[in-house]
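Why should sequence recovery work at all? Because a backbone constrains its sequence more than one might expect. Tight turns favour small or flexible residues, buried strands favour hydrophobic ones, and helices have their own preferences. The token representation captures these environments compactly. In the example below, the structure is given first.
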């Protein structure tokens, strides 16, 4: 079975690299390239590739948008090419979906290609993403509802703050104060509104006046009257009120709540 491959990446050097790695493989024929998501959707429809090397981070229409427009049932077998964040990479690993993390070498490329070949052989060249890939995409699509960046006005300028860089958020009257490494930014938004924009798998309300990035928590200590104290990696100590302690203690505990010492 000859594999018809389409290469999708907004960087010409990346497309050239994949084409070079495929050169000489008798099982693969490169039928086309696309430099953006919209062209990729059209190319998939017109060229009917059986394998797509799909960059995730592209302007206007990203890799996930391509799959949404093509459809899970009609999307060819896909090898994801990405420089994506750790949350996405964890999702790929959990669902056993193959991806190439930029920059990658020939050995890693060959492993991904061999897995794609085996999958195509098992499926007889039939279109449609594997159930594992579909499950992964559903999880990541859910996450895309949340903000990856926050725009903060500062002295007539607009500062872009990545939500992943926010260590914790503090209520400040009609504003919230975003604490990042070595700096703090005032954002004109309520705690309730911001909480809805933040990914709940990453950010946790611990107090009516505080939201914390769970990746920044170093330690949890018992406090008085059923409250807790979280200590962040930078040494910041935040009180966790009783009404929020249940969700905090459930972090990383699939079988129930963790128990703190001396409780």
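From this structural description, the recovered sequence reads:
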């Amino acid at each position: 079975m000859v594999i018809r491959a389409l290469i999708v990446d907004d960087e010409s050097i990346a497309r050239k690299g994949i084409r070079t790695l495929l050169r000489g493989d008798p099982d693969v024929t490169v039928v086309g390239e696309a430099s953006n998501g919209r062209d990729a959707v059209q190319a998939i429809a017109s060229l009917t590739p059986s394998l797509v090397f799909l960059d995730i981070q592209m302007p206007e229409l990203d890799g996930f948008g391509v799959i949404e427009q093509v459809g899970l049932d009609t999307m060819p077998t896909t090898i994801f090419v990405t420089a994506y964040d750790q949350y996405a990479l964890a999702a790929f690993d959990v669902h056993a979906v193959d991806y190439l993390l930029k920059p990658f070498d020939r050995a890693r490329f060959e492993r991904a290609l061999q897995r794609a070949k085996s999958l195509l052989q098992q499926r007889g060249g039939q279109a449609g993403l594997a159930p594992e890939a579909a499950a992964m995409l559903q999880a990541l699509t859910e996450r895309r509802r949340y903000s990856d960046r926050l725009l903060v006005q500062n002295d007539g300028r607009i500062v872009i703050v990545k939500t992943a860089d926010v260590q914790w958020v503090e209520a400040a009257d009609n504003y919230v104060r975003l604490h990042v490494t070595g700096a703090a930014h005032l954002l004109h938004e309520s705690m309730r509104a911001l909480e809805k924009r933040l990914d709940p798998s990453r950010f946790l309300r611990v107090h009516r006046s505080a939201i914390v990035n769970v990746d920044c928590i170093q330690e949890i200590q018992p406090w008085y009257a059923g409250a807790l104290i979280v200590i962040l990696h930078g040494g910041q100590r935040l009180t966790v009120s009783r009404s929020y302690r249940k969700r905090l203690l459930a972090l990383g505990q699939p079988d129930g709540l963790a128990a703190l010492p001396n409780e």
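A few observations help interpret the result. The longest strand covers residues 28-34.
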